[in-house]
Design goal:
292 residues; alpha+beta; four-stranded mixed sheet; three-stranded mixed sheet
Length: 292
């Protein structure tokens, strides 16, 4: 709460006494908080942004976007060049052009866009490991908080970003249709391996008024490959939904191969052999039907 807001209810002398007694904590000049909330990162962000053309950025913005937990340590805010770059205790202040003009808002707090938050956090991995930022980027695209082309456009504005090549490679995989680490692994280590036939990712198929997205599809022979993560596909209810989905797809000619996380990551060669065997068999079947 700001001191001007509090002065509408009590006197300045009372506020000073409460601060002296420890019933209020001054988190920034003109901003006070209860002891129970003063140390929380959201309180520190709100205080750092109060009455200032600044935005939450980097890992702090990603936490506000609910793409990762806020890491221990300081909160991050960004201001325009030429403005004060000094931060208070527990606050790191960065300077970059155009940040406030292009800001978004979450819970009333100004922050950088999802794509800028990801790129900025990637370039400053001290607070958050790049593996966590990578997971945030995948989640952001999967949940449609941003698009791969948004990430690519933001990355293009930072040609000297540390780790740029690795992030560019991730964005390309997301643009191709990968929506999880398992799909990225499957794409690189199984489906795109030498000798494997070409496929389409995130293929839409409409059946009985429902639309399904196939992880990977071989359109010419109506073969789908699904990569099932243990966390999502491990429950009985989800397995039953998968069975129902595969049965519906079969009514319009699609055969589905499913590979779990353990099998795909531990035995990629066996997965490739199975896909190739089914692919070859269905090729012969489709060819014979066309001859007739």
């Amino acid at each position: 709460m700001t001191v001007p807001e509090l002065l509408k209810r009590v006197s300045r002398r009372t506020i000073a006494r409460w601060v002296s007694d420890g019933r209020l904590i001054q988190v920034r000049p003109g901003v006070v908080a209860l002891p129970s909330t003063a140390g929380h990162w959201r309180t520190r962000v709100a205080a750092a942004l109060h009455d200032r053309k600044a935005v939450a950025s980097d890992a702090t913005a990603l936490a506000l976007w609910e793409l990762l937990p806020h890491p221990p340590g300081p909160v991050h805010v960004t201001v325009e060049p030429g403005r004060s770059g000094r931060g208070s205790a527990g606050v790191v202040v960065h300077r970059a052009p155009g940040t406030f003009a292009d800001h978004r808002r979450v819970d009333g707090l100004a922050l950088t866009s999802v794509e800028r938050s990801i790129v900025d956090a990637w370039g400053r991995p001290r607070g958050v490991p790049r593996s966590d930022v990578r997971a945030a980027a995948i989640a952001a695209v999967r949940t449609r908080r941003c698009r791969p082309q948004d990430l690519a456009a933001e990355l293009a504005t930072q040609p000297r970003l540390p780790g740029r090549v690795e992030l560019s490679r991730l964005i390309s995989l997301l643009a191709d249709g990968c929506r999880s680490e398992l799909e990225i692994w499957g794409c690189l280590e199984v489906l795109r391996a030498p000798g494997m036939p070409p496929f389409v990712q995130q293929r839409q198929v409409a059946v009985a008024g429902r639309t399904f997205l196939l992880d990977a599809a071989y359109d010419d022979i109506l073969l789908a490959v699904e990569m099932d993560g243990a966390a999502w596909h491990g429950s009985r209810a989800q397995r039953e939904r998968d069975i129902s989905r595969d049965a519906l797809l079969a009514t319009v000619g699609w055969q589905t191969l499913r590979f779990g996380f353990a099998r795909m990551t531990r035995s990629p060669e066996a997965c490739r052999r199975e896909i190739l065997a089914v692919y070859t068999t269905r090729q012969r079947l489709f060819s014979s039907n066309r001859v007739r």
